[in-house]
Amino acid sequence: MTTYIAYVDGACPNNGKPNAKAGWGAYITNPQGDTLEVAGPVPSDQRQTNSRAELLAPLMALRRCKPGAAITIVSDAQYVVKGAMEWLEGWKARGWRKSDKTPVEHRDLWELLDQEMLKREIRFHWVKGHNGDPGNERADGLACRGATGECVSQLTRANATA
Predict the structure, then answer these.
(1) What's this model's pTM, rounded to 2 decimal places?
(2) Number of helical H runs and strand E runs in the chain
């Protein structure tokens, strides 16, 4: 393996309602095979939406990988994968407007993701959610923990002895 792999996910119980609480999670493997599980809540001063949590997850994963290193981001969110791979360039060309001329939601996070994409090789891969993919299931569980307000940072070394 010559790249990081990050399974990412967002969760938001009561999405779209006043009592919504969103969280993000990432399950990251580095080139040496070490794994890092990270999760956290969407900051309370930000909109508590599933889409925001889904976008925070890859950004938080990128912050935990070696700067400039290649990374494959695996997500069950078409919004993240298509946004990064298909829609982003058009949004920028139209002044951060969608094809229907409405503003791009979560522009602040998309701009941060765009900056990261200019600095390193980032591939995005979509997987069907809740379909038994171990990395995706792990990221989902972490995102749910983040949505409860829990912060997680757990490193497991590949060559650790028992």
Answers:
(1) 0.95
(2) 5, 6
